[in-house]
Description:
The chain has two domains: about 5-115 and about 210-250 and about 305-310, no CATH class; about 120-200 and about 250-300, no CATH class. By secondary structure, the chain is an alpha+beta fold. It has eight helices and twelve strands. The protein starts with a helix and ends with a strand. The longest helix is centred in the middle third of the chain and has 22 residues, at about 170-190.
Amino acid sequence: MTSWGSIVLKEFKEKLERATTVEILENNALLTAQKHFNSFEKTKQGKFLLYASFAVNFLIDIEPRLSNSFDQDDILQLEILTDNKGQDGDVRDVVAIRVLQKWEIGISAKNNHKAIKHSRLSNKIDFGEKWLGIKSSTQYFDEIRPIFKSLEKMRIESNKTKTWKSLGNYHPTIYTPILEAFKAELLRIYNTNPSQVASALVEYLIGTKDFYKVIKGKNNIEIQAYNLHGTLNLSFKEINPKFYTPKVDLPTKIINISHKENTLTTLIVELNNDWTLSFRIHNASSRIEPSLKFDINLLKAPHSLFTNKLSIGEI
């Protein structure tokens, strides 16, 4: 958990406690993030707080329930989520909760970071079950196991010192067969229940719960509304949001899976409803490990995905 999420939470508290009762739920994730933020020099802290202020002001405008309560017992709780939530498909860093209203929203706070997931593959990871709720086949593991076992053997025999670079051109012998096995298995799983698998793939990668993604860039803040289930942007009594963030349709079909042109390391997954994802496989360390990592990016999203970029002058 980076400090960016705790800065957003801090701004929420300072702006909202003027209008409603706010409670911070303290945990180790919050304390770690605050410690990281406090290590910044004052100038850098000020810049981060300014960016967060812009984002929070906008979110308050489009989420009336943040600042409006039924009564004094209707407390707004703010919490930093722990990293293991992301492994369960909840990508949110900060949540705002009103128990009496049975309402919550979440924010994924990213600093110059647009990748949506970093998932691993190995002969011990069942990506089908973990990502999609459907077990991967014996055939898939039979195809990938010899490759990962070979990597494990090299790692042990070199006392964990052997590097990927020492293998020479290993992409055709390691990356390509792993990617082909992954592609074939994803299609096999997809064919068992197309509509469920297509939507589950995006939910696993994007998030199982609706959220706002707040991306701090250079001299701007970008806010995206992943309103997949219609839980964002709700009115409070007669108070309506100042901007409308429409519900975003999940995919129901995988249209095509193909290699990115002129590369052996990246698969492009095209789905209906204007979703396109890229899966770039790579080694996470310079030294050989019996696992590989995906850098997964959202290349295309539905036009209904609300995006607003707030420009901030040079500071």
